[in-house]
Each structure stands twice: as C-alpha cells, then as structure tokens.
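Appendix B. One record, verbatim.
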Amino acid sequence: MKIKDLLKKEGISLGLKPADKAEVIDIMVDLHDKVGNLNDKAAYKEAILAREAQGSTAVGMGIAVPHAKTDAAKHPGLTAITVPDGIDYECADGTDSNLFFMIAAPGGAADTHLEVLAGLMTMLMDPEFSQSLVAAKTPEEFLALIDAKEDERAEDKTEEAAPAAAAASAASNGKKLVAITACPTGIAHTYMAAEALEQTAGKKGVSIKVETQGSGGAKNVLTAEDIQAADAVIIAADKKVDLARFNGKKLINASTADAIHRAEGLVDRAVAGDAAVYQHTGAAAADSGSSDKESVGRFIYKSLMDGVSHMLPFVIGGGIMIAIAFLLDDYSIDPSNFGSNTPVAAWFKSIGGTAFGFMLPILAGFIARSIADRPALVVGFVGGALAASGSTFANPGGDVPSAFLGALVAGFAAGFIVKGMQKVCDKLPASLEGIKPVLIYPLCGTLIIGVLMCLINPIVGALNSWISNVLMGMSSGSSVVLGLILGAMMATDMGGPLNKAAYVFGTAALANQNEIGYMIMAAVMVGGMVPPIAIAISTMVSKKKYTEAERKTGPANIVMGLSFITEGAIPFAAADPLHVIPSLMVGSGIAGALSMAFKCTLMAPHGGIFVFPVVGNVAMYLVALVVGSVVGALMLALLKKNVEE
C-alpha cells in the first residue's frame, strides 16, 4: 500500500482561503465524505473535534494533521488542502499552518495503513518537500510530488544497511541514545517525533534508535542490548509508557511536541548526560526525570481512569446478568425475593452478583497499581474488598460497607502506602530485594489498609444510623420533600451510607403496609433507576463529555437503570465524582419528588421496570422516571467538562 492508495485526487483541494480553523475542519470532513471514506459524517467530525479539544494537531513548520480513529470511518483515508496564505490553527509555537492532511482511521479495522501514514508523517518533516506541496497547482501535481518522495524513501531504505553499519561503528566511539515516542492515537505525532529525533541525531553524528509505540503496536522495538549500550534514554510520549526496562539509565521525559519542536535540545541534553538516573520503584516514578511536572489533578484523573477502565467490564457484565434474572423470574412467587424465585433466574443473579463482587476491589486495586505499580495491587484489592464488606474491628465479617467512595479512598491510600514502603525499603540491604514484592509489601500493606478501612467503616455505620433516624422523623412531614431527599440520596454513593440508608428506609416502610410506606418505596426505586439512565442519555447526546470507551458502554446503562441497578453509574461517578454525582442527585431528587407528588406506590423492594405492573399510578411513575433522567442528563451536559482522553 502507498499513500496514493489512501489519498485520492478528489480528496485534495488547493489554494484555499478558509476563514478559520472551524472552516478548515468542515472542508476536510466534507472531502472525506465526498470520496466515501465515512460511515457517519457527523460522528467523524465529532471525533475530530474531540481530538482537537485535547490539543491542537498543528505540529509546527506550517503543518497540521487533524486525525481521528473511530468507527465513523468506513476505511482508512486521507484528505489534503493547502492554504498558501496560512491560517491560525492554534499551533503551540504561534505560527500559522498552510498544509493540512486529515486522517480517517477505522476504529476496529486492520492497521495495514498505519505504516503508510507513518511514512507520510516522516516525509512531512522535510521542509522543502512540505513547501513544494503548498506550491502545487493541481491535485495531480500534489499526488505526483508525494509519489516521487515515497519512491525516493523506498530507494533510500534499500541502501541503508551498509551506511547504518558504518554509522553504528563510528558511533561506538561516541554517544549512543535510545528513545521511545508515543501519542494517544498513535497515528501522527508518534512518527513525527521519531523522525525529528532521528534527523537531529543524524546531523550531530549521534547514534539513536527510536521505538515508536503507534496504533499498530510497537515498531523498531528496543532490545535489552540496545538499552544496555545506550548512554541515555529519551521518552517523548503523551501517554503512559512502561519504564521498568530503563532502570538505572539516565532518562529524559518529554512530550511528542518537545521532540517535534525542540529535538535539538533533547539530544544535546542526552549527549551531555544532563538527566537524572531513573530508579524504577513504581509507575509514578516515571515522571521523576520530566521537566514538565504532572499536575495533581492530572495525576488523580489518570489514576482514577486506570481503576475505572478495569472495573467497567465487571459492572456491565454483572449488571446485565442480573437484569436477565429479573426478566426470567416470576414476581408472583415471592415479591420480596424477586430475581431469585426460579432456579434459572437465581443462577443468572448469582453469576451477576459474583461479577459485581469484584467491582470495588478491581477499582481500588488498579488505582493503587497506577500509583505504585504491581506491588500495590494486592493492597488495593484488599482495601476495595473491605470497603464492599464493611468490616470493622467489632465485626470483621462486615455490616457497614463504605461502597465505591470507600473503594476510592482505599485505592489511593493503598497506592501511597506501598509507595511509602518502597522508599523506606530502598534503605534495606540488597540481599532482601527479592522478598520485598512477595512478603514485605503485601504483608505490611495489607495490615495497614486493613486497619485504615476498619476505622473508616464504623464512621460510615454511625452515619448510616443517624441518617435513618433523620428520615424516620421526616416521614410524617411533607411527602414531596421526603421524596426529593430519598431520590437524591439514592444517587450519591451507590451502595454507601446515603444510598443504603435511603434503601433500607424504603424497604422498612413496606412493613407498614400503608399508602405512605408504598409511596416511599416507589420514590426510592425511581431515584435509584435514574442515574444509569441519565448517564446513558448523556453519553449519546453529550459525546464530547466522555471517552470513546465510555461512549461505547454508556448505552448499556439503560438496561441497568430500567432494572434498578444503580451501580451501573459507578464507573462514571468514580471517574468524575465532583461533576457526575451532583448532576445525578438533581435528576434522582426530582424523580423522587414527582413520584411522591403523583402518589405513585410500590409494594416490591426491587425489580425496576419488571415490577411496574404492580406500581400504583404507573403512567405518572414513568413520567417521573423520564423527567428525572432527562434532567440528570441536562445537568451532566452543564457541569461535566469536555473529555481529556
């Protein structure tokens, strides 16, 4: 495959004068649609804009490469335009851009096109070639220039063996560097950064081998011998890179933009040995050699997302299994045991419940791993499990779970506990190195996290009792206000003290066997149904607010919401609690208040839509559910920020 297989003359427009960046994007998306590269033009444009929201794809030297990897692309393709007078495309160095290539990469297709795109990116690093493209008068001339340059590079590669051997021999008496380049999409910046480093090192007579971690996987992979022989390491990456293999080497940590625009400075620093020696004591230590320190907010966000991304499959798989149990069960056998009345339903609910049981330990474990690497996994898992069980010193078996908020605390605590132990253990004799990860870290870490969670959970239990007493005192007051409060509580901590207090209060109210008791249970259930449904609506309507993975899994929350599985919203709440939880509380509160105002009743403690046949005033109950879900989605659109993938 060659570049001309991806770039058709119908997808090229030259000598344009667009008004601004937005018009450039519109023109290039239209060209992709015109040549038949897209399944969904609107969705592809949204993916392009989402990538631009993370940072402009203008790379300097007059070049911009907007790109997106998405299912909205039918097959790999390129479009190109030139703007001879230049336009502000928000380049980091403040310069205008006049040469644009837009890449459409299918989300799940084979990656045979990536090597071709990588070749184009490296070709664009030649200023004379780029300017010749800007000066082209016709699409045919534009394509001919690219074809000729590509053939030239192919010829160069066949003649590289002998010169490369000579260069390696010459470099053996000088400095030798290794590097890794990587960007989130692995399409454009990865290869341009690699080319910039290679060109700069070549001009300075320095040997360098660059591993590119692109969308198609790692290429030109560094061997143990390469790393051992290197005088220094350059990491030019915009995503997490495993640095364990560089332990003991001088390491410079930078971004792909640094490599593209300031490659000379990076190479000079590496040659001069102006870098800290990297000591691998955990994932977060990767930043120790970076001149651009990661912000606290960014650090927390990355750790949260590591936990959430691993937890999500357990929530989706387990939640849908439980929903199937409700679908297959017979409510009339025993309403209080709905979901487990028949053997088939009980089997599905048991399997789903088992998957759910892993949810909080996985969340806490992988947050901890993100902070202190693999030694923190066991401590995080145990902390998350204790948050789920509610263990205390008085009752080790557990009865006051702190739920996902407790798991968040456990995850971060476990990470920093192990990180602290790693620093302390650095002073131990080298002969004890082998027992640190298998004995010291898991034993001491588990003990510490166990004490911490047994201190936290009783506080949760006391809070739970206090809330129940407060609710009991309110039950004789305004029913609408009580519904508002109960609904909002169901959307707070999804199994924690507030959510649990509201649910226990609702089920206890059923024992009264009167209208107000049934109204309370109805308000509680509708409040618990809203969060997953609001999330599902929001992921489909406010797509810029969510990562691609969240957009794909979001619609599954409709099933969980309708089944009264509030936990479906946990991954989204855990990833952005300050914005998501208040939004869901507003939606659920309104649903609970409306349910009370409409005097809706429910005589079952669970079941979601599957027990709607026994709901009193079911039509208005549906209205309360829809209104609350829509309001929750609107609040999410208002409060959540555009995603940073």
